[in-house]
Amino acid sequence: MIKFSDCVNGMRTSEIRDLMSMAMKPEIITFAGGMPNNDLFPVKEIDEIYNGLDDATKKVGFQYGPTPGYPPLIESLKEYLRSKNLPVDSNDLIITSGSLQAINIIAKLFVNPGDTVITENPCFIGGTSAFKSYQANIVGIPLDSDGIIMDELKRAMENEAKDAKILYLSPYFHNPAGIIYSKKRKEELLKFLAGKELILIEDDPYSELYFNESDKDLTVPMKTIQPEPVPICYTGSFSKILGPGMRLGWLLATPEIINKAQLTKQSMDACSSTFTQVLADQFLRKGKLRPYVERLREIYSRRMKIMNDSLVKNMPPEAKWVVPKGGFYFWITLPEKVDALEVLKESMSKGAIFVIGRTFDPEGIKNNCFRLAFSHTPEDEIDKGVKIISEALKARL
Ligand SMILES: Cc1ncc(COP(=O)(O)O)c(C=O)c1O
Question: Which residues does ligand 1 sit against, CB inside 6 Å?
């Protein structure tokens, strides 16, 4: 018998992934993928950028690069992060292969088998999987529409999460909950965490995708509000604002942490793709990111409204949701007795799919909820898909 390591033996294939792979027929309307639609990628701009490069730079793109990142991208990214008031001068930056790698690196830096990591519940599954792969014990804390519930966090930190090493949060247009933390909640959190020996991961791949200018203030990272004395590892990504296939993210943290992160990354992949780093650098330098993201905001905002109108029109009153102010997701909560898997099976047979709630529960239990992503679905399919899901749900109530 092949003897896999303990950490790999702890990994489970998800029944939902298997189900989904059967559902990838072109006629199925999918709200499952948390990604942009292929039609939204800036193909023309990237063509122009590549064709405009001199041969020497193109050749650099084919080569290995320094582990912390392609130096011109480090500089242009610092400029971008500086414009958000992030402390790029007192902290160091490392480019990672997606922000998921940044989370993985932090997990590797701090988690020994059996250590406790606190996450939100629901939580981005890539985050929980990364922590679990280092055999962390995960304590999930519920959210309300303003963010993590402080009383629950405090109670856990006096009990089962007393010795927690990491608190992993995704405060801006949460995946899957769709919420954004209020200013008050962020302040309460930072006040509570001050002086505690806990690494806070502030995971921020979606904050650029706000739908109203008036909500931009809500996207101010905690790392800018109070970088000290709470040690914040701030992670970001090009995945939702340029393309996930670039596989480029970043980690901004203290020099001590980045130094160890570099050693860790070296053994993982030596460096992130120089090729895509060259392109991302030019995209930033030529001022193409801002107008592109403005276009995305309009498109996603329109899709969100179409989905919300359709939910209001079709869903039974028992289904509840918070209207997202940005990002990709609606999170639908149902009465306790409803099992989202049953709704999914019915809805899949009629031609529409989504991701069930327990995928995002660190314990894999809570299932009276599901995620609908509007980022990937063409506008003219949204209403039809929501109608199918609503009918499937009504049949289960
Ligand atoms: C909250 C959150 N963090 C991190 C990631 C990882 O993104 P990437 O590794 O593509 O940068 C995702 C992707 O869906 C996400 O939703």
Answer: 34, 98-100, 124, 126, 170, 175, 203, 205, 237, 239, 244, 249
